[in-house]
Amino acid sequence: MYLFSITINIEDSHQKEWLIWVKAELNKLLADKELVQDFRLLKILSEEPNSGSSFSFQYHLSSLTDMELFEERYDREVAVEMYRLYDEKFVEFRTRLELVDWKL
Fold it and tell me: pTM of the prediction?
């Protein structure tokens, strides 16, 4: 199992509007059930005062190929639109993760 994680910090003055927009975009993004096995949108609670609000988007995928297809087909399109609408109002970083079997 693979996890594609995007962490975004958005200015508080734009957070409500952005969250409405991003939820609508996610509904479209997640319509293709063949790639994303599970999804979580989490609000990060360990915030610094006056530093905006942070969210973690976690997409669970079966393979690296699925992750690359997901990024190519969907994620880039949403990212381009988000930069167009909210440029300089947010920062983000992306992480690709692989689930490690922890059982001995």
Answer: 0.85
